[in-house]
Amino acid sequence: MMNDTKAAVVPVTQPFLPPLAEFLPYLEQIWSNRWVTNDGPLHHQLEQALCEHLGVEHISLFSNGTLALITALQALEITGEVITTPFSFVATTHAIHWNGIKPVFADIDPVSMNLDPARIEAAITPDTRAIMPVHVYGNPCEVEEIERIANRYNLKVIYDAAHAFGVQRHGRSVLSFGDMSVLSFHGTKIFHTFEGGAIVCRDAQMKRRIDRLKNFGIQDEVTVVGHGINGKMNEVQAAFGLVQLQHVSEAHAARARIDAYYRERLGHVKGLRLHEIGAGSTPNHAYFPVLVTPDFPLSRDALYDELRARQIAVRRYFYPLISEFPAYNGLDSAAPGNLPVAQTIAQQVLCLPVFPMLEREVQDRIIDIVLAVAASTVDAVQ
Is Transferase there in the keyword field (predicted)? Predict the structure, then answer.
């Protein structure tokens, strides 16, 4: 095996950073205002700009997406059990646990990799109060079927939409489904504020409740009305978000080109299954996952090692399942037999690099390594 140590490491993703000159006027405004946090003018400006860009009415900004998830559950006063997916970043389940709620894992659909509605319904008990699905890789869940289930059993629905910035389903923002949707603006995301997040909710009254909860439950100078937390986004984060938003369409177009080229060159490789986007959905190309099936010459882990040895920092995302971590593997719903599809997907998934600055030459290098492995000639790759 040849290790191409001269090449720079190629990450799965990199934060898109706009020209510094565009950011500096906002910093000057912050210094001039002497208002650095606590519901400042740039915070309000970004909320309004995001509502317009995303096609939603009510959005509340947070310092990070995990605090937004925790607060969403608090705002809806969820107790008992919440049905969720084991195939996600661990923050999804941690937010449930931090609220003293029992997470209940249900299996995923083998194509979308999102929660399987049939398995959601099978997991409902008298203690179930909510469903927390994830739009995995920005691919929308079966929101209509999940809504029918929630209505039938009188359940709340909170979508973890960390990957779903700008995604639409049948011409409607995917963030408008459910009782709430929670976004992440972490540096690895399509739109980011260094760190950050947001809750999209249905009405102004709920937004006011969320805004109080993220500010310690403070209603006014002398009144605290709830057990809140410090989840506020500061003005520097908001300023960076305003700059980022000016470039997000450009970044999305670059990701779309990278996605299309991967599909063109890898779409017919035996043993590789490319992630399929649901009909009627407008993707954001947040990730490029492939499934390395038994028909491929190497296992997923062996392909991972080959690419890593050549400085391609691919990720097995999401592996292992959340249900396999010691914090959660004692739950009855975490049993492998309850999650056969998720178990298989977690053993096969590999995310290839996709970010706006990924050059075609570097992408060709990544693809050529995969093709060489597929042809069992990996030692010939330079």
Answer: yes
Instruction: Please give the model's pTM, rounded to 2 decimal places.
Output: 0.95
DSSP-H helix ranges across the chain: 20-33, 41-54, 65-75, 91-98, 117-123, 143-153, 204-213, 235-245, 248-266, 300-309, 340-348, 360-374
How far apart (Å, rounded) are the C-alpha atoms in residues 331 and 321?
Answer: 13
232 is catalytic: no
With beta carbons less than 8 A apart as the criterion, state whether 197 and 91 touch.
no
- Residue 102 to residue 107: CA distance in whole angstroms: 16
Dihedral angle computed from the Cα positions of residues 93, 97, 102 and 106, in that order, rounded to the nearest 10 degrees: 0
For 250-272, the pLDDT digits (tens) are 999 999 999 999 999 999 999 99
The rounded percent of the chain whose pLDDT value lies above 90 is: 93
115 token code pair: 């929660």
b/e per residue, 134-145, with b = 16+ CB within 10 A?
bbbbbbbbbbee
**Domains present along the chain, CATH in parentheses:** 10-14+248-380 (3.90.1150.10), 20-106+113-245 (3.40.640.10)
Predicted confidence at residue 376, as pLDDT, reads 81
Q: Tell me which residue has tokens 């450009």.
A: 250
**Looking at the predicted structure, is the pLDDT value of residue 144 above 60?**
yes
Q: What is the pLDDT of residue 377?
A: 60
What are the tokens at 292?
Answer: 């390395």
Q: Which two tokens stand for residue 22?
A: 């565009």
C-alpha–C-alpha distance, residues 215 and 360, integer Å: 45
131 bridge partner residues:
83, 157
Bridge partners, 132 (sequence order): 84
Over residues 201-211, the mean pLDDT reads 97
pLDDT value at 3 more than 50: no
Distances (CA, A) of 114 to 101, 138, 187, 318, 368: 21, 10, 23, 12, 30
Query: Using one digit for the tens of pLDDT, what is the confidence trace for 162-205?
Result: 999 999 999 999 999 999 999 999 999 999 999 999 999 999 99
Half-sphere exposure of 70 (CA within 13 A, CB side): 21
Q: Is the dihedral of CA 378, 379, 380, 381 positive or negative?
A: positive
Tokens of 336: 């492998």
